[in-house]
Amino acid sequence: MNDVTKTYKILEIKQETPTIKTFTLDTALEGTPGQFVMVWVPGVDEIPISISNFDPLQITVKEVGEATKALHKKRIGDYIGIRGPYGNGFGLVGERVLVVGGGVGIAPLRTLMKNKNKQFTVVLGAQTKSEIFFEEDFKRNADVFVCTDDGSYGKKAFATQLAEELIQNNRYDMVVACGPEIMLKYLFGITEKHKINAQFSMERWMKCGVGLCGHCSLDPTGWRVCKEGPVFSSEQLRKVTEFFRYKRDQSGTEVEL
Amino acid sequence: MLSTSFAGIELENPTVLAAGILGTSAAILKRVADSGAGAVTIKSIGPKKREGHSNPTVLFFDSYLMNAVGLPTPGYRNMEREWEELKEINVPVIASIYASSIEEFVEVAQYVASRKPDAIELNISCPNTKAHGMLFGKDPSIAHDVVSQVKEVTNNIPIFAKLTPNTDRVIEVARACEEAGADAIVAFNTWGPGMYIDINTRRPVLHYRTGGVSGPAVKPLVVKGIYELYEHVSLPILGVGGITNGNDAIEMIMAGASAIGIGSAVYYRGIDVFKRICDEMQGWMLTHDYKSIKELVGVAHE
Lengths: 257, 302
Fold this sequence. Notes:
The structure holds two protein chains of two kinds. Chain A has helices at 66-72, 106-109, 135-139, 159-169, 181-193, 234-239; strands at 6-15, 20-25, 36-41, 45-53, 58-62, 79-86, 96-102, 119-126, 142-148, 155-156, 174-178, 197-201, 231-233, 246-248, 254-256. Chain A is of the alpha/beta class. Chain A folds into two domains: 6-86, Translation factors (Elongation Factor Tu (Ef-tu), domain 3); 96-256, 3-Layer(aba) Sandwich (Rossmann fold), CATH 3.40.50. In chain B, the strands form four sheets. An eight-stranded parallel beta sheet of chain B has the order 3-16-15-10-9-8-7-4. Chain B has a four-stranded antiparallel beta sheet with strand order 5-6-14-11, with no helix packed on it. In chain B, a hairpin with a 4-residue loop joins strand 5 (58-60) and strand 6 (65-67). The two termini of chain B are 22 Å apart. By secondary structure, chain B is of the alpha/beta class. Chain B has helices at 26-34, 80-86, 102-114, 134-137, 140-153, 170-179, 219-232, 246-255, 265-269, 273-287; strands spanning 4-6, 9-11, 15-17, 40-45, 58-60, 65-67, 93-97, 119-123, 159-163, 184-187, 191-195, 197-198, 203-204, 210-214, 237-240, 259-262. The chains are: A alpha/beta, B alpha/beta. Chains A and B meet through strand 4 and strand 6 of A and helix 1 and strand 5 of B.
């Protein structure tokens, strides 16, 4: 069982952007793109983080809160805890796949590129030039389009706008995406309008990570993001009324998005 | 065959979702009910919003779990949508509550009773916080006062007292609850607490450092605890701890439980564990020629 928290040495740390680092760990996992691990930062917290490479295990983390800040302070040779992989990843259908990544949401999408049977088009979006990462990795197996909110690199646009242009001018069998929920909200509007199947990686506050505590369950279906998700299909996204509207915080209280 | 009644509540089967597992929203409780649970318990509701402990809150091992979630709650006033949607659940709903004083227990119980759950479970046994929980369940006279004062403000809603096994006064506490007017005993909350230390980082892994132990490893302790309770109290007993299959459930019932709580088994066997345990119980009963689960309660004492 991979559910017992075990600690592994950090072998390598790469600064991807001013706020994002990739940690390479002394272990490897087998799994599906889009799955996540629970990462224990000893003495601080344990948080779900998507997998940016399986063998060796890599996680790519943006400094946003207490746990990620503490993780960013770790050095090569330090230990962190890992359990997983957890959840349902992406299930690619068809040949032509449009991949949309926003901000640190780009990270798990890189693992899709190992699939040599698909024709990938990738949109990478970030606020500014210095926050774009993994571009070269994607280019090895995909047509890559970059956009930034401030226009400092690539096209000056939101990832959703660039994605809609591509959808209007090309035929895709499906759209997969990971990024801020506001981006996914607009992107879902676009994929619904153009009748393209989508799979999005979603986020909610998690405690156990294995479907036991129920904290990340969704209204009104009761699906657990850690177990039935984190990747949800268009058909599922239509049924979950809380997506793009509200979520629950650490106490379980509903908060507007 | 599996239908029974527990403290006056009709159950289609004796499996009950234990408190603290999956019970965070009406939506997930409904899903558990649809997965075959005979009744469901809402995660313990407290007097005011509380985040609980930081992660890691639950640790997973082959034969036991350890948790210190720390009673997160939106607070009873902050759950309007849940209260409304709970009405749609078609099996009995038990509301677990906790508090840090007898007055607070009364306050929370009075409000919760106004939302008319099928029963209220008093969590006087959580091992994972300093101010709440176990403290009330280790002292017979305090347990008595919590139950009797809650009974005064909850009309005719059945009151269950959830006991801690972590005291040598279990029987005295159970008797005190019975005298105070409790309608059932829930035995037990988690054990210990215990600790798990990661040897590479030389640190306890649970953020709270210690956590209650549950799962298959505690089952023999629970069976023995219920066997003893059955001899000393006449209240119906909801047996909780380490039941993962139909045989475990039958064993617990033979020890004296009238219904059985399912918690950690959701981890070991998935969310449809309720239906699976029921099928297994039914299979055993058919083979051994039992027609009603009621015939099996306490038979190990004969």
